[in-house]
## 1
Amino acid sequence: MADKILVLDDETEIAELIALYLENEGYTVYRASTGNEALQITEKQDLSLAILDIMVPDMDGFEICRRIREKHFFPIIMVTAKVEDLDKIRGLTLGADDYITKPFNPLELVARVKTQLRRWTRYNTHGTPDSDTIDIRGLHISRSAHTCTLNGEKLELTPIEFSILLYLCEHQGSVVSSEQLFEAVWKEKFFNSNNTVMVHIARLREKMHEPERKPKYVRTVWGIGYTID
């Protein structure tokens, strides 16, 4: 069954171009030109991924991303005409997994879609729950089932968040630099992407109810990176 992808963009030519490239790769595409239309599609279809333009008439992409994340955990790629880091950080904070800046090469967008879908597929492929597990002081991770619990409570993590936590746990006791973490999780070269890593670490800590100053699990080693002891 083909993956279903939502494309939200009020510029018809751009939406059609994105849809054309994605459909040529075998994906089923649902187009929306307003935020409300996008949210309706989200509720009616079992989506695998969403591509959200930030600037649409009735509500911005940030608000749409926030509403989607209240119920769904599939990957979200934000599309922005701006290049400010604050916009990127805001989108990541609200639950976006990736972003791309206009004008962009459609082939690059397709590549990013494939990367996110591969990660999402691995995240949702369940194996034997008791195999390949990691236990660290009440933090339980199953690699095969792609699940994580903390003191018996399930953590609702996005694929990116799960990959970050798993990588840190696999390197327990070692300090992992932002560059190493970014390249391991995003599978891309690190180009001053510390903000991206930092925002996702902050979201992860929030979901784990970690105290800001003295976190029990994910600690910052200033000037070097992150570690789990």
## 2
Amino acid sequence: MTWKISKSFDFCYGHRVWSQELNPDFSIDPCLKCRHLHGHQGKVILHLESTKLINGMVTDFAHLNWFKVFLDDVLDHRFIIDINDPLFETLLPHYKKDELIEHKEGYKTPDLTKIKNEQNHIIEMYESYVIVDFVPTSENLSTWFMNIAEEKMKELDVKVSQIEFAETPKSTSNVYA
């Protein structure tokens, strides 16, 4: 037997898909809207599975609170930008790519001590950036979430079988283990 559970999490974020290209034979609107700075109300569903139950459960749903904390503390109301985005230097003019703080979950943030004497609105702008090394498409974000969840849940010997990510209620990507 295999048991499966899932839990969903919501967060708001902004991004830009600078690599977007549209095929005019398939797109109603030729505008490359995702190349613009824009935001979403995202929803991530973690799907877990196990062939054994511990205390009658795949795992306790409370064991997924760490993911909610990650989303709230790292991504909620933040702007995800690819370090290779041609707008990187425009959006983060005070920083070179090697001056960022690396985090174990695979993202970087500006070192705010470098701009500690700037006005508050400048500091607030920089603290809103989450820098990744991939174009922040729905598919790439799903993969990133999968890698983070797999790394954490292996401590409990629980398999992450799928990540479902909806950047809008009508647009969803999935990645499977």
